[in-house]
Amino acid sequence: MAGKTATSGVVPAxxxxxxxxxxxESPTAVGALxxxxxxxxxxxxxxxxxxxxxYDLASVDIMNSRLEPGSQDFEGNVFWLGTDGAxxxxxxxxxxxxxxxxxxxxxxxxxxxxxGAAVGLSAAYFGGRFETLAxxxxxxxxxxxxxxxxxxxxxxxxxxxxxxxIALVLVQWAYYARAxxxxxxxxxxxxxxxxxxxxxxxxxxxxxxxxxxNCLAPLIVVGTLQTAHAISLEATLSFLxxxxxxxxxxxxxxxxxxxxxxxxxxxxISIFPGVALLITIVSIxxxxxxxxxxxxxxxxx
Amino acid sequence: MTAFILRRSxxxxxVLLVMSLIVxxxxxxxxxxxxxxxxxxxxxxxxDRVIRELGLDRPVAEQYWYFMINAxxxxxxxxxxxxxxxxKLIIQRMPAxxxxxxxxxxxxxxxxxxxxxxxxxxxxxxxxxxxxASSILGFSMPTFWVGIILIMFFSVNLGWLPSTGRGDxxxxxxxxxxxxxxxGLSHLFLPAFNLALFKLSSVIRLARxxxxxxxxxxxxxxxxxxxxxxxxxxxxxxxxxxxxPIVTVIGLEFGSLIAFSTVTETVFAWPGMGKLIIDxxxxxxxxxxxxxxxxxxxxxxTLNLIxxxxxxxLDPRVRIKGVS
Lengths: 301, 324
What we know:
The complex is a heterodimer of chains A (about 300) and B (about 325). By secondary structure, chain A is mainly α. Chain A is built from twelve helices and two strands. Chain A has helices at about 1-5, 15-25, 25-45, 45-50, 90-125, 130-140, 145-155, 160-190, 190-200, 205-240, 250-260, 270-295; strands at about 70, 80. A two-stranded antiparallel sheet of chain A has the order 1-2. In chain A, a hairpin with a 5-residue loop joins β1 and β2 (about 80). Chain B has a domain at about 90-275: MetI-like (MetI-like fold, Orthogonal Bundle), CATH 1.10.3720. In chain B, about 75% of the residues lie in helices and about 0% in strands. A two-stranded antiparallel sheet of chain B has the order 1-2. In chain B, β1 and β2 (about 175) form a beta hairpin. The radius of gyration of chain B is 24 Å and the shape is globular. Chain B starts with a helix and ends with a helix.
């Protein structure tokens, strides 16, 4: 396959084995991947692994509000991480919050990846005015910080789940477009693309089946780091009260809810959702860092 | 050089115009301008009067024209909540934000460069590993949450530093700032540290990457061969050469510090323009939102321009490439 020679993998092992042996060189990255998989598992199966359903009004008792971590209610249920102002179990709320945060982050990441890759690949492939215009827009957009772009979008459209996702997509697509174009420019001039053109294959087919598979590595790296960034940005926006509505309590919203109780010393309502957020973001970033080192041809041994 | 500056300025003006068009279209066409620009408590008679006064019954192109003319005259509308010109409100709050951003930048540079250079010179030492690990942590920690932790630790538990608002200010050499009073500094420290944390991580990373690259260059080897002291090599030969990317980033990051100050200002109730815009978005105070966006775009475009010009002074290759 053209893709393997392009990354100069001379080791006769299969792609996955080579990948894993490179990846597992860093114990930190392996640990981070494990932590991330646990977080992902919790997020997907939140309704099963949570001790209670924090948004089932019948199981929430206001009498249990602001209990310290480890305390019990009258029926003997233990709140390992305490309860919030409405008497919800924080542990369950965090599990459900992870679900929302990861879901919004991943969804916006995938949509941004598709849009960005489409723009970046076609810009590199077709060139000309389209490329100039698209890349100018990317440059201008990237010169503004993401929080500002998101604020503009949410100020215009108002808050909500779809709107937050739209804002995150609009903030992120430019990063993918730039990465996709950069690697497609290199691939475009290789012989296999010329060969495909000589076979009179359609542009779409050449882009999707020939160029794109060879541009995936950098896109995956950008994807992991951007998803971590999107999760953090969503949390920030929700904390500010501009992102997700209270019906979709993400980690940022939980932290925001706990903020008012902080001054009276009820630290757990804000701190624990933040720890969950931090664990998620750090584990994704560490995995992303390692992926970047593996895929970086300059560091290849 | 002049040609480069002129061409670059022209580009900036175009970006400014495009951004003004986007903000204008965003506020006036995507949403309902009547809802956004007119006080929701107004009655029908008032609404009709304001529609005529704002020219919302005119064609869009004409509206944009008047919007720009007013903007150039410094009229970006009146706040619904405060009943004062939006621009005036923002300018009033600008010094607080600038002070916060500059102080954070100061923290980020004065800690970031030494730590980064150290980590680059001794990449395998324990301290370097600790520095790099903390920089990943600093990179990953959401600003607002760190702010909460800082408040909890230093204000609520230890009671050392105040957690909200801006302290006393004093004026020296025509500059009014809270860095001149003890009370002001104590109020400034937590939010500035909070805002600096993210930038600190990127300055550390840049300085380390730059150091590792520069230290392998021939001129460093030559300087060592000449028998220059390690201190002089680092101060003169190394620092000068790693400064180019750092200056760029500092310039660009200053803008993002202002943007991110929206978050820090909200957490610490710092009375700057970042808190103003967040409050304005809550209160649907659209004129303030529009005015803030126009001001911040102006700041950004100007900063980018300054960075590019400075860059071309530091690295003549940029200038030559730009002319050809």
